[in-house]
Amino acid sequence: MNTTSSAGQHREELTPQAKAPKVPTSFEGLGVPRAVVENLLIKQIAAFPKSDLLNLTKLMCINSHMIEDMIANLRKKSLVEVFQAASEGFMSQEATGSVRYGLSETGMQEADAAFAKDAYLGPTPVSLRDYDQMVKDQDVRAKVVTKADVTHALSEVYGAERMISVLGPAINSGRALLLYGDAGTGKTFVATRILNSLNTSVYIPYAVYAAGNIIKVFSPQHHKRVDNNADGQSLLFKEQFDRRWVLSERPNIQVGGELTMDMLEVNHSEHNRVWMAPLQMMANNGIFIIDDLGRQPMPVDTLLNRWIVPMEYFFDHLSLPNGQQITIPFILTLAFSSNLDPEKISDPAFLRRLGYKIQFYPLKDSEYQALWEKIAQVRQLAIAPSVFENLFSLHRQHSVGFYPCLPKDMVGISRDIIAFEDIEPVITPEILSRAWEVYFTADGKGGGAR
């Protein structure tokens, strides 16, 4: 069902679903213990020696008056030293009078202790309470998706019109989905686009403070920023929202056979002792796709049982590195994608918990040909008139369905052949046969397994 387009809304079309978080003007408003914020400031000065107030404000993402207050307190404890930047010239306005801060020897010892306890270095975290409220305010079920919304979101997906009437109610329900069908029928491709129908953006925190731990949430790998709120140079926040949050597209997180149970808990790598949020926490207010269900290293029942409580009650329990447990919201679209028969995946009792079970099919011959023509056009290739007769013959001969992954892959191989041999940019029956031969295994069925 996929096309050559990356499909989805233009970022400027997205509207925040929740009200922008206001800038806190006091430590009470932060919702995080002052000692935690001061330790983070000490680490920032250690990592960026001789930073001025503007730099520290940008690094901490909080009001400059709080930075000044903490620095004054740290100076009283002889942890911070003040440096006057040397003038770079008679007319240098930037350097003149610029006060910079560094750590004393005692301050460096404090920084080492702070890093040993918690290696996080970044914007000030938000409280678990504020995070919980924001996630609830951005619940996908709060705004009803219409047929027109879903039709627009999947407008460039071939064959989607047969599924819109099912996908729309599935999105509105907020319940878990099971997408099943042959490999290459576009299950994951469609799943990544269904939330585009909401046309909304969401606020995601850089980090959350919970039960004595800072958990990093925002990840450039999984979250796409839609504004430049953090790029402002002014120390005044009146025209901006709380910089501890990032306005992003709704998260779209996919994981396949590499998924392990550790990825679903607060954890860190051997090289980086920053505690990272689990995948489902990063996916809140978005979609979390578990692809290739049944190919993970743990038994399917073990993986599925992990989701029983979150799916039923919309919250999840996480164990923290200090032994405590916290409860986080579980407000997202959870989608399982599998090439297996649903009856063979799990017992009927669990399948009943999956709100929607949606089967994907190969394309119709007219849709399949149209997709070939579209992709060839984008790749600036022509298609000889007799190619489709040859193509459909190969499909019948090898009993291969009209899977939407095939045109993109085989047009790509055809283009490689044409470029290598430096011939006219036309896909001929002969080039098609060569592409088919190298794409599939000897029995003609080894390709397209996605």
Description of the molecule:
The protein folds into 3 domains: 11-17 and 128-360, P-loop containing nucleotide triphosphate hydrolases (Rossmann fold), CATH 3.40.50; 33-122, Arc Repressor Mutant, subunit A; 365-439, Orthogonal Bundle (Helicase, Ruva Protein, domain 3), CATH 1.10.8. Helix content is 36%, strand content 16%. It has helices spanning 27-30, 34-47, 53-60, 64-76, 105-117, 128-137, 147-153, 164-173, 187-191, 279-282, 300-305, 308-313, 342-345, 348-353, 365-378, 387-398, 405-421, 429-439; strands at 15-16, 51-52, 80-84, 99-103, 126-127, 177-181, 200-205, 207-210, 213-216, 245-249, 252-255, 287-290, 315-319, 325-329, 333-338, 356-360, 382-383, 426-427. The strands form 6 sheets. The protein has a 5-stranded parallel sheet. A 3-stranded mixed sheet has the order 1-7-10, with helices on one face. The chain has a 3-stranded antiparallel sheet with strand order 2-4-3. Strand 8 (207-210) and strand 9 (213-216) form a beta hairpin. Helix 2 (34-47) packs across helix 5 and helix 7 crosses helix 8 (164-173). Residues 3-11 and 87-97 have low confidence and may be disordered.
Let me know the CATH homologous superfamily of the largest domain: P-loop containing nucleotide triphosphate hydrolases
- The CATH topology of the largest domain corresponds to Rossmann fold
Structural class based on helices, strands and sheet pairing: alpha/beta
Q: Please estimate the helix content.
A: 25-40%
| Envelope shape | elongated
Assign the CATH class of the largest domain. Answer: Alpha Beta
What is Rg?
A: 27 Å
The largest beta-sheet arranges its strands as: 11-12-15-6-16
Instruction: Indicate the proportion of strand residues.
Output: 15-25%
Give me the CATH architecture of the largest domain, please: 3-Layer(aba) Sandwich
Q: Give the number of domains.
A: 3
